[in-house]
Design goal:
Strand content: under 5%
Number of helices: 11
Shape: globular
Number of strands: 2
Order of helices and strands: HHHHHHHHEEHHH
Helix content: 55-70%
CATH class: Mainly Alpha
CATH topology: Ferritin
CATH architecture: Up-down Bundle
């Protein structure tokens, strides 16, 4: 995530930003020109301070959304940190995975910093079982940290869930355009992660066993090609967009109508997927 781009886009996102930030506009423009002079680690706190001054005390619901996002980022960061610590990742793929790992750790730091500066309290890192076994260490993804193809399968499910989760939170943030812009920036990076993981899986020949897109058929709601992760794609069987049933109004097949759109996930849906499995209850 390029934090400088967030600042550069603030004026385009909020038509009242001139009034909100004046006389802080010069300070913001100076920050964007610092480049390497500003330590990346300090940026979340600088951004958070500006957000708070510009928009006042953040509504608690916004902090709740950011803490929800932070919980997801804790999970992803731990997954990649643990997977990268040993000899699991082939040398040829290490640059891909390390880039994703670094992004997830930056997301954690960024969200914690902004939540704090907006007057909230970041949630603590939860008890995480990367096997999905609710603390047993012997869940359905137990092989993810010893078997590289399974690691990539789990990574794709995590990234796709993250993309849909951020999309689902956008309506709750529409009242705070600056925070929404930051969240959407992370959303876009998660989507790029999902694309990179698919590339690695394609290189392993896994595209024949797990589809690069999520479709539904008449006989199966969420057909990923791998039953282990089908449940992570609940809701993708939707064929109605904008109130229009694409199969009846346009004659599209179920697979085309479902594969062409990515469905958002609510907080409740995400927690139902993760609690009692990856997030230990």
């Amino acid at each position: 995530m390029n934090l400088f781009n967030i600042i550069n886009e603030i004026e385009q996102v909020d038509p009242e930003i001139h009034e909100r930030l004046s006389p802080r506009r010069d300070a913001i423009k100076n920050i964007t020109s610092f480049g390497s002079k500003v330590a990346l680690a300090a940026m979340p706190f600088a951004l958070g301070t500006m957000f708070k001054k510009a928009y006042g005390q953040t509504n608690s619901s916004v902090v709740d959304v950011l803490n929800f996002a932070l919980t997801l980022e804790y999970l992803e960061a731990k997954f990649y940190n643990t997977g990268s610590a040993g000899a699991l990742i082939p040398a040829a793929n290490a640059s891909y995975i390390n880039e994703i790992k670094d992004d997830e750790n930056q997301h954690v730091s960024f969200l914690k910093g902004v939540i704090t500066q907006l007057g909230g309290t970041p949630v603590a890192e939860p008890n995480i079982d990367l096997s999905g076994g609710n603390g047993s260490g012997n869940g359905p993804f137990a092989a993810a940290l010893t078997d590289y193809p399974t690691f990539l399968l789990a990574a794709q499910a995590f990234e796709d869930t993250g993309v849909r989760a951020y999309k689902g939170q956008a309506p709750a943030l529409k009242g705070n355009q600056v925070v929404l812009t930051a969240a959407l920036s992370i959303h876009a990076v998660e989507a790029r992660h999902a694309s990179a993981i698919r590339k690695l899986r394609f290189d392993l020949g896994q595209s024949t066993t797990t589809k690069p897109w999520i479709v539904s058929t008449a006989s199966k709601g969420n057909d990923t090609g791998n039953a282990l992760v089908d449940g992570n794609y609940d809701g993708e069987q939707n064929v109605t967009q904008g109130g229009v049933n694409l199969t009846t109004a346009l004659g599209a097949s179920v697979s085309v109508a479902t594969g062409a759109f990515d469905e958002p996930l609510t907080t409740e849906q995400v927690l139902l997927l993760l609690k009692g499995s990856f997030l230990v209850s």
